[in-house]
Amino acid sequence: MHFEPSEEQRLIEQAARQFAAEVLRPKAAERDQKSLFPEEELRKLGELGLLGVNVPEQYGGSQAGVVAYSLALSQIAQADASVSVAMAVTNMVAEVICAFGTEEQKQKYVPRLCSGDAVAGAFALSEPQSGSDAASLKTVAEKVDGGYRLTGSKQWITSGDRAGVIVVWARTDAGAPVDKRNQAAGLSAFLVEAGTPGLVAGRPEHKLGLKGSTTVPLTLDGCFVPDSARLSKEGDGFRIAMVALDGGRIGIASQAVGIGRAALLAAKDYSKERKQFDKALCDFQAIANMLADAGTQLDAAQLLALRAAFLKESGQPFSQKAAMAKLYASEAAGRICDMALQVHGGYGYTQEFPVERYLRDVRVSRIYEGTSEIQRVVIARSVLKEFSDHAS
Ligand code: CAA
Predict the structure, then answer these.
(1) Which atom of ligand 1 is the closest one to the Cα of 134?
(2) Element of type H or E holding 297
């Protein structure tokens, strides 16, 4: 494992850093305060090749790998977490189509996702009554002549009202008796295009943070999709979701690292400027210790994210390490944002400084793409397995 990024990784990170500083940061507060969706910014990210960093060139991606993706996403999140979540989900959808799609599906959707022409991709797994217990979802895909009719409700869908293509999970085992059903084995995944008759996005949620990103419920009212819209074979849906989420969790860890870094930099700058009792705040050991702890935790979070990215990129198992990275980075970044606000005192509690936005934005990273509790389930299962492997 190398601790130095390659020239290509550095260039991608540099492109993301420059775009973040010049284009995203100046208007991030306004997008937050007015809940403005960053459509133009996503198109520009596409032009720079940052919507498909880990997507093969033949489908319009940059083919720079998962480590480069993690570095780039952190830079974008450092300037505007709302843009980074749309970028992360779009990347996840492009990757899932590349991994499980037919050649026709890849050619039809992936270049549009990478260029920003599709605006964004969306991932419609969760439902009003099934979040952590994803396999219990109830949306039905009824087989009809030439395709399927999808009927059900989806909840918490990032960019669901803006995305050009949405991966929708539904039951293809709806006829089987409920007590005999293997819930996970009854799921399939479908590519549903924006504008499909019967697909309706509800009112965007009023959220604590990530106000520049939209989160909507979706209703599928007998939406017809052709057979060619099914990803992989019937019954493969749960595995597809889990594989996608394993990779997605590296994205959320990287996003948390970016928000945490923004908060730490803000705290550092403010603690050097602000004087009390004739000394800069950073000259009080209490404050310096906060910065020291935050710096250490941020480094640990980034190392975990990069290790998971490296494992995925080199084709090794990474599910447990991605869960560890997501768990640790999201919780550490939350502590760092809270610390940054504390260092700013009363000013930090106002919109005059960006730290209150960082604290609001970072909170959801402990919830989406699997809560911290679910990450612990994933980690515990593999730790228990490792131990039993050692015993045998
Ligand atoms: N890779 C491949 N296959 C996997 C897998 C993985 N990581 N994890 C599980 N599977 C397979 C299992 O091997 C099993 O297959 P077999 O039956 O053939 O053995 C099958 O899937 C079922 O697995 P489990 O019994 O482990 O399933 P479970 O019901 O106990 O659930 C879970 C496991 C980890 C809790 C899972 O439900 C989960 O991750 N829940 C959280 C869901 C989540 O993260 N939702 C986020 C929503 S999307 C989002 O937030 C995006 C956004 O917009 C920002």
Answers:
(1) 37
(2) helix 285-313
